[in-house]
């Protein structure tokens, strides 16, 4: 037995848009068996309705308050996904020039874009200034100085929030915790007032807000409230220094249900945040949020086909056609993803490790799951809509999977499966 406990996942965990109908797993009205058959596997499948449901939960939680949701697009940056969120009214949290280019390619409004990230380069600052983003979330004093000089040279003014590191424990996996002192992110809260003072005197900089992002897959409200408390104290201090802010960005990080977690609902968080803002005299501030995973995670599955069943003395392996290069989360974080047979068998299951064909022992997708399998069966790896395809690579010269968006009883291929030609594009041999 591995670190993961033996269990069967008989029913879809995260989203009602994935459900069994006549013994076959469906995304909305589309059979996943048919999709796997028509388009091959591995295959990412998203539900358009699930995206809308997740976004609406934030909108409803916002109510009549001034809230801008900037989708943390690193979670899933397919153009069709971006376009859908833009249509629903979302802004975007970007972390690179490439993500900015995607936002623009999707036809979204750059005035609703916040630009995060610790390593912004000159060309990225220039592109964002030319596009007219809402705000740069500046993560260090050297970055602030560079932005000032880039903006001044362009004859522009850069709207700025400082990303403050509030030193709170998000109580999540260490790799996805970002608000602790030892993390590389943000400006230490104790040094923030001094950095704001500098920002307010630098040419080409307009101070507009404050920002933090404490981590990801957070299921408790307290870390957010701790961070908010520290931010509000800072805002009050800035106020007394004559530095007036327009918005407060609390970042993303709300968790989803992979297994048996109880996710923090946007409304639970926002009700508490609004109460704090009102009672402490900050009701005028616009609230910005940067949710990624909670908008897309349970809106997607990855389909994969069993190639071989290898029964050994120590373990049973289901060797499938998807691997760590297609879905990296288990290898990187020992992340748990549900595994559902697309057409479940009635025979009793046995314990399997679901592994890929890549030449690494870390190449596993799930461990110790009770499954009843035959060669050729299709499995759905759940909760793969966030940090799935975007983290895929070509290790072992494996083309990346196709992506499909289901919409009611129709589906659209929103990214073709890569070909061998795609893999070697740009390579050349010596003369
Ligand atoms: N804003 C900033 C500045 C971020 O760094 C992130 C995520 C987000 C927003 C969105 O966070 P979310 O709402 O998705 O938790 N690859 C990891 C997750 C890395 C998250 C990085 N930052 C995983 O697969 O769990």
Automatic annotation (TrEMBL):
The modification N6-(pyridoxal phosphate)lysine is found at residue 74. Pyridoxal 5'-phosphate binds at residues 253, 290-293, 387. Its cofactor is pyridoxal 5'-phosphate. PANTHER family: DIAMINOPIMELATE DECARBOXYLASE, GROUP IV DECARBOXYLASE. Belongs to the Orn/Lys/Arg decarboxylase class-II family. LysA subfamily. Homodimer. This is Diaminopimelate decarboxylase. It comes from Sheuella amnicola. The gene is lysA.
């Amino acid at each position: 037995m591995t670190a993961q406990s033996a269990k069967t996942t008989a029913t879809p965990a995260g989203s009602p848009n994935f459900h069994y109908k006549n013994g076959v797993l469906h995304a909305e009205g589309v059979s996943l068996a048919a999709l796997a058959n028509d388009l091959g596997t591995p295959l990412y499948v998203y539900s358009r309705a699930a995206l809308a449901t997740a976004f609406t939960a934030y909108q409803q939680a916002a109510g009549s308050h001034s809230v801008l949701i900037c989708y943390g697009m690193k979670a899933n940056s397919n153009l069709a996904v971006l376009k859908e969120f833009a249509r629903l009214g979302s802004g975007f949290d970007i972390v690179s020039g490439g993500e900015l280019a995607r936002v623009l390619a999707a036809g979204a409004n750059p005035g609703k874009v916040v630009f995060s990230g610790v390593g912004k380069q000159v060309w990225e600052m220039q592109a964002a200034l030319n596009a007219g983003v809402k705000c740069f979330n500046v993560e260090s004093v050297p970055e602030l100085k560079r932005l000032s000089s880039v903006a001044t040279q362009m004859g522009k003014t850069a709207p700025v929030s400082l990303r403050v590191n509030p030193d709170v424990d998000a109580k999540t996996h260490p790799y996805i915790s970002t608000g602790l002192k030892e993390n590389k992110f943000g400006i230490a809260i104790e040094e923030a007032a001094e950095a704001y003072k500098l920002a307010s005197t630098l040419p080409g900089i307009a101070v507009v807000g404050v920002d933090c992002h404490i981590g990801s897959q957070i299921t408790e409200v307290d870390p957010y409230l701790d961070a908010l408390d520290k931010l509000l104290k800072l805002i009050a201090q800035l106020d007394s220094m004559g530095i007036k802010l327009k918005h407060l960005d609390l970042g993303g990080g709300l968790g989803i249900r992979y297994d048996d977690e109880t996710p923090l609902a946007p409304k639970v968080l926002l009700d508490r945040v609004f109460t704090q803002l009102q009672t402490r005299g900050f009701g005028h501030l616009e609230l910005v949020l940067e949710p990624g995973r909670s908008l897309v995670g349970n809106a997607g599955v990855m389909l994969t086909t069993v190639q071989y069943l290898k029964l050994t003395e120590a373990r049973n392996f289901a060797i499938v056609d998807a691997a760590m290069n297609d879905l990296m989360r288990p290898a990187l974080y020992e992340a748990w993803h549900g595994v559902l047979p697309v057409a479940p068998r009635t025979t009793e299951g046995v314990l399997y490790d679901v592994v890929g064909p890549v030449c690494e022992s870390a190449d596993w997708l799930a461990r110790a799951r009770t499954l009843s399998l035959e060669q050729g069966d299709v499995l759905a790896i759940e909760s793969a809509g966030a940090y799935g395809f975007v983290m895929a690579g070509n290790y072992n010269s494996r083309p990346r999977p196709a992506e499909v968006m289901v919409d009611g009883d129709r589906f659209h291929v929103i990214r073709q499966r890569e070909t061998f030609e795609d893999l070697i594009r740009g390579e050349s041999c010596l003369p």
